[in-house]
Amino acid sequence: MLAQTLKLILSLNGRTPAPSLPRRLDGLFRELALPEPSRPAYEIEDLIWALWIDHEDADAARRMERVIAEIAGKRFDVAEGDLSDLVHDHPDWAEAWNKRATLYFILNRDAESVADIERTLALEPRHFGAICGFAHICLRGGEAGAAVAAFEAALRINPHLESVKAAVEELNAGLRRSLN
Questions:
Q1: Final residue of a domain: which of 125, 147, 163?
Q2: What's the CA gap between 45 and 129, in Å, rounded?
Q3: Which of 103, 106, 154, 177 has its CA 20 to 30 A from that of 133?
Q4: Final residue before a domain boundary, out of 104, 125, 146
Q5: Residue 177 CB neighbours (<10 A)
Q6: Dihedrals phi, psi of 39, to nearest 5 degrees
Q7: Does the residue 171 lie in any domain?
Q8: Do the Cβ atoms of 105 and 113 come closer than 8 Å?
Q9: 91 and 163 housed in the same domain
Q10: 45 and 68 housed in the same domain
Protein backbone atom coordinates (compact mmCIF):
# COMPACT_ATOMS: atom_id res chain seq x y z
CA MET A 1 0.00 0.00 0.00
CA LEU A 2 2.66 2.55 1.04
CA ALA A 3 5.14 1.68 -1.72
CA GLN A 4 2.60 2.34 -4.47
CA THR A 5 1.64 5.72 -3.03
CA LEU A 6 5.26 6.70 -2.49
CA LYS A 7 5.95 5.87 -6.14
CA LEU A 8 3.03 8.15 -7.10
CA ILE A 9 4.38 10.96 -4.90
CA LEU A 10 7.86 10.67 -6.38
CA SER A 11 6.39 10.93 -9.89
CA LEU A 12 4.22 14.02 -9.25
CA ASN A 13 6.66 16.56 -10.67
CA GLY A 14 5.28 17.83 -13.94
CA ARG A 15 1.82 16.31 -13.54
CA THR A 16 -1.00 18.64 -14.47
CA PRO A 17 -3.53 19.70 -11.83
CA ALA A 18 -7.21 19.09 -12.53
CA PRO A 19 -8.76 21.74 -14.79
CA SER A 20 -11.37 22.43 -12.10
CA LEU A 21 -8.73 23.98 -9.82
CA PRO A 22 -8.48 27.79 -9.80
CA ARG A 23 -5.78 29.02 -12.20
CA ARG A 24 -4.67 31.51 -9.55
CA LEU A 25 -3.00 28.58 -7.76
CA ASP A 26 -0.34 28.38 -10.49
CA GLY A 27 1.08 31.80 -9.66
CA LEU A 28 0.86 31.17 -5.93
CA PHE A 29 2.84 27.94 -6.27
CA ARG A 30 5.47 29.68 -8.41
CA GLU A 31 5.79 32.35 -5.73
CA LEU A 32 5.86 29.79 -2.92
CA ALA A 33 8.72 27.90 -4.61
CA LEU A 34 10.99 30.96 -4.47
CA PRO A 35 13.70 30.84 -1.78
CA GLU A 36 12.61 34.32 -0.67
CA PRO A 37 9.10 35.22 -1.87
CA SER A 38 8.08 38.88 -1.96
CA ARG A 39 5.63 38.27 0.88
CA PRO A 40 5.75 35.88 3.85
CA ALA A 41 5.38 32.24 2.85
CA TYR A 42 2.61 31.72 5.40
CA GLU A 43 0.48 34.30 3.55
CA ILE A 44 0.93 32.40 0.29
CA GLU A 45 0.15 29.11 2.04
CA ASP A 46 -3.01 30.63 3.54
CA LEU A 47 -4.16 31.79 0.09
CA ILE A 48 -3.51 28.32 -1.35
CA TRP A 49 -5.46 26.62 1.43
CA ALA A 50 -8.32 29.11 1.03
CA LEU A 51 -8.54 28.33 -2.70
CA TRP A 52 -8.38 24.59 -2.05
CA ILE A 53 -11.14 24.75 0.56
CA ASP A 54 -13.40 27.05 -1.45
CA HIS A 55 -15.71 25.80 -4.17
CA GLU A 56 -17.58 27.52 -6.98
CA ASP A 57 -20.78 25.85 -5.70
CA ALA A 58 -21.72 27.95 -2.66
CA ASP A 59 -23.60 25.04 -1.09
CA ALA A 60 -20.54 22.80 -1.39
CA ALA A 61 -18.38 25.51 0.20
CA ARG A 62 -20.84 25.79 3.12
CA ARG A 63 -20.83 22.02 3.52
CA MET A 64 -17.01 22.05 3.66
CA GLU A 65 -17.09 24.71 6.37
CA ARG A 66 -19.52 22.52 8.32
CA VAL A 67 -17.24 19.49 7.91
CA ILE A 68 -14.26 21.44 9.23
CA ALA A 69 -16.31 22.41 12.28
CA GLU A 70 -17.47 18.81 12.73
CA ILE A 71 -13.90 17.53 12.71
CA ALA A 72 -12.80 20.27 15.12
CA GLY A 73 -15.73 19.32 17.37
CA LYS A 74 -14.77 15.62 17.19
CA ARG A 75 -18.10 14.71 15.57
CA PHE A 76 -16.26 12.29 13.34
CA ASP A 77 -19.18 10.07 12.34
CA VAL A 78 -21.14 13.08 11.08
CA ALA A 79 -18.06 14.48 9.33
CA GLU A 80 -17.42 11.16 7.60
CA GLY A 81 -20.95 11.04 6.22
CA ASP A 82 -20.79 14.63 5.04
CA LEU A 83 -17.36 14.13 3.43
CA SER A 84 -18.50 10.98 1.67
CA ASP A 85 -21.43 12.97 0.29
CA LEU A 86 -19.06 15.75 -0.83
CA VAL A 87 -16.70 13.42 -2.69
CA HIS A 88 -19.71 11.72 -4.27
CA ASP A 89 -21.29 15.01 -5.35
CA HIS A 90 -17.99 16.68 -6.34
CA PRO A 91 -15.52 13.91 -7.28
CA ASP A 92 -13.13 16.44 -8.86
CA TRP A 93 -12.73 18.47 -5.62
CA ALA A 94 -9.28 17.58 -4.34
CA GLU A 95 -9.79 19.17 -0.94
CA ALA A 96 -12.89 17.09 -0.19
CA TRP A 97 -10.76 13.98 -0.73
CA ASN A 98 -7.95 15.45 1.36
CA LYS A 99 -10.26 16.32 4.26
CA ARG A 100 -11.64 12.79 4.26
CA ALA A 101 -8.06 11.43 4.17
CA THR A 102 -7.31 13.61 7.20
CA LEU A 103 -10.36 12.31 9.01
CA TYR A 104 -9.38 8.72 8.27
CA PHE A 105 -5.88 9.46 9.58
CA ILE A 106 -7.34 10.81 12.83
CA LEU A 107 -9.41 7.62 13.10
CA ASN A 108 -6.32 5.41 12.47
CA ARG A 109 -7.84 4.12 9.25
CA ASP A 110 -4.61 4.41 7.31
CA ALA A 111 -5.50 2.30 4.26
CA GLU A 112 -8.58 4.45 3.61
CA SER A 113 -6.56 7.61 4.25
CA VAL A 114 -3.90 6.55 1.74
CA ALA A 115 -6.57 5.79 -0.88
CA ASP A 116 -8.00 9.30 -0.47
CA ILE A 117 -4.51 10.85 -0.52
CA GLU A 118 -3.93 9.14 -3.87
CA ARG A 119 -7.18 10.61 -5.18
CA THR A 120 -6.24 14.05 -3.83
CA LEU A 121 -2.86 13.93 -5.57
CA ALA A 122 -4.38 12.72 -8.83
CA LEU A 123 -6.41 15.95 -8.84
CA GLU A 124 -3.88 18.29 -7.21
CA PRO A 125 -0.32 16.95 -7.52
CA ARG A 126 1.00 20.02 -5.65
CA HIS A 127 -0.95 19.21 -2.48
CA PHE A 128 1.89 19.44 0.03
CA GLY A 129 -0.60 18.85 2.87
CA ALA A 130 -1.68 15.48 1.48
CA ILE A 131 1.95 14.49 0.88
CA CYS A 132 2.84 15.37 4.47
CA GLY A 133 -0.19 13.41 5.65
CA PHE A 134 1.14 10.39 3.78
CA ALA A 135 4.55 10.91 5.44
CA HIS A 136 2.88 10.80 8.85
CA ILE A 137 1.16 7.54 7.94
CA CYS A 138 4.59 6.18 6.97
CA LEU A 139 5.99 7.25 10.33
CA ARG A 140 3.10 5.61 12.17
CA GLY A 141 3.82 2.43 10.20
CA GLY A 142 7.53 2.48 11.06
CA GLU A 143 8.61 3.42 7.52
CA ALA A 144 11.01 6.28 8.27
CA GLY A 145 12.74 6.12 4.87
CA ALA A 146 9.44 6.45 3.01
CA ALA A 147 8.43 9.30 5.32
CA VAL A 148 11.65 11.17 4.54
CA ALA A 149 11.12 10.70 0.80
CA ALA A 150 7.55 12.02 1.07
CA PHE A 151 8.54 14.96 3.27
CA GLU A 152 11.30 15.85 0.79
CA ALA A 153 8.74 15.76 -2.05
CA ALA A 154 6.53 18.17 -0.08
CA LEU A 155 9.52 20.46 0.46
CA ARG A 156 10.17 20.58 -3.30
CA ILE A 157 6.68 22.06 -3.65
CA ASN A 158 6.78 24.22 -0.52
CA PRO A 159 10.33 24.78 0.73
CA HIS A 160 9.05 26.92 3.62
CA LEU A 161 7.62 24.10 5.76
CA GLU A 162 9.97 24.58 8.72
CA SER A 163 8.55 21.74 10.83
CA VAL A 164 8.92 19.39 7.86
CA LYS A 165 12.55 20.47 7.38
CA ALA A 166 13.19 19.75 11.05
CA ALA A 167 11.49 16.35 10.79
CA VAL A 168 13.63 15.40 7.78
CA GLU A 169 16.81 16.38 9.61
CA GLU A 170 15.78 14.38 12.69
CA LEU A 171 14.71 11.35 10.67
CA ASN A 172 17.87 11.40 8.56
CA ALA A 173 20.00 11.57 11.71
CA GLY A 174 18.13 8.57 13.10
CA LEU A 175 18.52 6.64 9.86
CA ARG A 176 22.27 7.36 9.83
CA ARG A 177 22.56 6.16 13.45
CA SER A 178 20.70 2.95 12.66
CA LEU A 179 23.08 2.23 9.73
CA ASN A 180 26.20 2.59 11.92
A1: 125
A2: 10
A3: 177
A4: 125
A5: 8
A6: -130, 165
A7: yes
A8: yes
A9: no
A10: yes
How does pLDDT run across 99-108, given as a tens digit for each residue? 999 999 999 9
23-79 tens-digit pLDDT: 999 999 999 999 999 999 999 999 999 999 999 999 999 999 999 999 999 999 999
The tens digit of pLDDT for each residue in 135-161 reads: 999 999 999 999 999 999 999 999 999
State the amino acid at position 57 in one-letter form: D
If one counts the domains in the chain, the total is 2
CA 137, 9, 54: angle at the middle one, nearest 5?
80
User: Following CA atoms 150, 154, 156, 159 in sequence, which dihedral angle do they give, to the nearest 10 degrees?
Assistant: -130
Rounded to whole angstroms, the Cα distance separating 30 from 109 reads: 34
The burial of 78, by beta-carbon neighbours within 10 Å (0-12 exposed, 13-18 middle, 19 or more buried), is given as middle
Residue range(s) defining the domain that contains residue 110 = 39-125
Question: Residues 120, 161: one domain?
Answer: no
Flag whether the pTM goes above 0.90.
yes
CA dihedral 53, 41, 15, 3 (to 10 degrees): -90
Judgement on whether residues 50 and 83 belong to the same structural domain of the protein: yes
The answer to whether 131 and 121 are in contact (CB under 8 A) is: yes
